[in-house]
């Protein structure tokens, strides 16, 4: 039964998750990695319209922008599906180690491109490597924890993954205004 049904305080479960992360090096690395990645590298998601306009000359209300964003989304779907199908027989730690530098390389290319034509292919590759990395890292974490701890550790994952993206975007906005979207993307890479 859930903690509330057993009368246990929810804060106790959060602390249990933190204790597990402190004790288990793999869990700790997964959580630190997702938090850092989300804070620094995922600013491209929130800043996508600015990147499209300033770097590629694509207006966010145009069909060209819709197609660019669709390429990112299609790549994301393919990356997540690949982890569960084509890459299912591989060690997920190896997939993590391959997809993270691949993501960095693609993000670098996306930061430097100024022509919309190759940007569509790069957006597809960016989505593919982004979701390939996230899905494989999540799988490593899920396989590492037992059923009793999974919810507690997954709550920490969700805070690290979803909770830091808005903070990264709040920090990225003024940096983009002071420098450029390219600078923020290169730091993320």
Give an account of the 3D structure.
It is built from eleven helices and no strands. With 189 residues, the protein is mainly alpha-helical. The model has no long low-confidence stretch (mean pLDDT 92). Helix 3 packs parallel to helix 10 and helix 6 runs parallel beside helix 8. The chain starts with a helix and ends with a helix. The chain is 84% helix and 0% strand.
**Fraction of residues in helices?**
over 70%
Largest β-sheet summary: none
Q: Termini distance?
A: 42 Å
By secondary-structure content and strand pairing, the structural class works out as mainly alpha
Q: Roughly what fraction of the amino acids lie in strands?
A: under 5%
Uncertain runs are none
Order of helices and strands: HHHHHHHHHHH
How do the strands and helices of this protein lay out in sequence?
Elements lengths: L2 H4 L3 H14 L1 H17 L1 H4 L1 H9 L6 H22 L7 H21 L3 H29 L2 H16 L2 H14 L2 H8 L1
Helix pairs in contact: 2-3, 2-9, 3-8, 3-9, 3-10, 6-8, 7-8, 7-11, 10-11
């Amino acid at each position: 039964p859930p903690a509330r049904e057993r009368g246990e305080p929810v804060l106790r479960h959060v602390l249990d998750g933190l204790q597990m992360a402190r004790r288990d090096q793999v869990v700790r690395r997964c959580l630190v990695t997702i938090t850092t990645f989300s804070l620094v590298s995922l600013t491209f998601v929130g800043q996508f319209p600015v990147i499209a306009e300033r770097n590629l000359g694509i207006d966010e209300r145009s069909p060209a922008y819709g197609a660019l964003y669709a390429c990112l989304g299609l790549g994301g779907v393919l990356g997540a599906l690949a982890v569960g199908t084509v890459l299912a027989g591989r060690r997920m730690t190896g997939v993590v180690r391959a997809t993270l530098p691949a993501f960095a390389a693609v993000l670098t290319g996306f930061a430097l491109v100024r022509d919309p034509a190759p940007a569509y292919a790069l957006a597809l590759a960016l989505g593919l490597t982004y979701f390939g990395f996230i899905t494989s890292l999540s799988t490593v974490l899920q396989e590492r924890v037992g059923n009793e701890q999974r919810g507690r550790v997954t709550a920490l994952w969700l805070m690290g993954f979803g909770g830091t993206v808005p903070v990264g975007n709040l920090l990225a906005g003024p940096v983009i205004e002071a420098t450029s979207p390219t600078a923020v993307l290169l730091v993320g890479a």
